[in-house]
Amino acid sequence: MQAHVTDPYVQRAVAGGYRSRAAYKLIEIDDHDRLLHPGQTVVDLGAAPGSWSQVIAERVRPGGRVIALDLLPLDPITGVKIIEGDFREQTVLASLEQALNGKKTDLVVSDMAPNLSGVAPSDQARALHLCELALEFALARLKPRGAFLVKVFQGAGYPQFLAEMRRCFGSVASRKPKASRGRSTEMYLIGKGLKSGVL
Fold first, then answer.
1. Which of 122, 160, 182, 186 lies at a C-alpha separation of 20 to 30 Å from 130?
2. Of 179, 22, 171, 180, which Cα lies nearest the Cα of 109?
3. Is residue 3's pLDDT more than 70?
4. Under a CB-based contact definition with an 8 Å cutoff, are residues 7 and 21 in contact?
5. What is each CA distance from 136 to 26, 52, 126, 140, in whole angstroms?
6. What is the pLDDT of residue 180?
């Protein structure tokens, strides 16, 4: 708890009005890779508690739209349409399609991670499965040349997932933001330029 309270990114998040330190992971990535632009439509998967959606909403103004999905409830965020539920369920997807008004999205982001069991092989498999689901979701809903940002964990299955990302996007880059805890195996993959005919 002491380490959390004294964490500089936690302190910055409190001072900046963000709901978690994760906001600074996205801020650093976007400052480097320029994923977010005014007027974009962005879908945020696994959005709770909402810090990524806060950053996205700020950076797609004016004229942008943000749709946040999560199993957990989110407190309202200005400029963000919140959908509570499992994005694998048809009713939730129907709500998303309604929010998109039948249009494609410019960017899909996913900071999802499973609840950890402490059994490393099982946790890695579940985390990778979420990545695969997020990629499948993105491929179906991105505009031509759209982009995808996803949190991954290095370990079993990671090389295969990286290869699939490269199959689907014109360029793929990996990032380890400074706000990511050093002991964590998490990193972020950015796919830009959705290739045609990859579904």
1. 182
2. 22
3. no
4. yes
5. 21, 21, 15, 7
6. 78
Q: What is the pLDDT of residue 2?
A: 45
Class of the CATH-defined domain 21-194: alpha beta
- Written as one string, the DSSP assignment of 92-154 is HHHHHHHHHTT--EEEEEE---PPP-S-HHHHHHHHHHHHHHHHHHHHHHEEEEEEEEEEEES
pLDDT band at 166 (very low <50, low <70, confident <90, very high): very high
Determine the Cα–Cα distance for residues 5 and 102; give it in Å rounded to an integer: 44
Distance CA 38, CA 53 (A): 14
Q: Give the other-Cβ count within 10 Å of 38's Cβ.
A: 10
In 3D, which of 100, 131, 98, 95 has the Cα closest to residue 114? 131
Task: Provide the annotated active-site residues.
Answer: 151
Question: How far out from the chain centre does Cα 94 lie?
Answer: 20
Residue type, 21: R
